[in-house]
Amino acid sequence: MKPIPNEYWKAIVENDASYDDTFFYGVKTTGIFCRPSCKSRVPNKENVRIFKNAKLAQSENFRPCKRCKPDGLMLPDKEWIEQIVDWIDQHYYKPLTLETLSEFGHSSPYHLQRTFKRVKGMSPLEYIQQVRISHAIHYLMNSDKSVTEIGMMVGLTNTAYFITLFKKKTKCTPTEYRKKYGGTKEETIHEKQ
Q: Annotated catalytic, 172?
């Protein structure tokens, strides 16, 4: 891979619009490409690839940024939200906030929240909780892990909050769920009802 010319890197760091017709840059970790003037967070230099035009970036499987709309391209909202959903599905166990998601999706938190709710019928937080509880159920039914361990594995590090959320979503605590539906371990930790 060619090194990034210093003037291009400076244009990216300074969001220099005068370079917008000169090149585009893609970020390997997100799979998104932008104009030099994009106001998204400055990526790590080692994750950046330079493209002469948007078509080259797309031919390398980079998606256009929703914030700066490189070369006038724009993903339909449904496709954009599906990309965010896929990213959540792969990173559900990490600390996820609306800011994290909007950074990944290259949009404002407000726009992401509103569009996500319109497309999916629920907020990003509600979707994250649904994914986490679904994975927790899988672990309860298919492992000997404790409730605390399972909470940690699905990104809910506060055990009391995990138990409360689980009960809110399933109408029983994780231990009750495991007993009721044939999980593999008797829980020894007392759960708050």
A: no
Where on the phi/psi map is residue 51: left (φ > 0), alpha (ψ -120 to 50), or beta? beta
The conformation of residue 47, written as its DSSP 8-state character, comes to G
Instruction: Determine if the pTM surpasses 0.90.
Output: no
Say if CB 96 and CB 68 are below 8 A apart: no
Mention the CATH class of domain 126-180: mainly alpha
Angle between helices 109-120 and 98-105 (to 10 degrees): 90
Residue 19: strand, helix, or coil: helix
What confidence tens digit (pLDDT) does each residue in 44-78 have? 999 999 998 888 888 898 988 877 877 665 557 88
Tens digit of each residue's pLDDT (9 = 90 or more) over 1-31: 677 888 899 999 998 888 887 899 999 988 8
Tokens found for residue 95: 């600390």
Among residues 34, 38, 65, 68, which one is catalytic? 34
Identify the CATH assignment for 6-72 out of 3.40.10.10, 3.20.20.140, 3.30.470.10, 3.40.1280.10. 3.40.10.10
Contact call for residues 102 and 137 (beta carbons, < 8 A): no
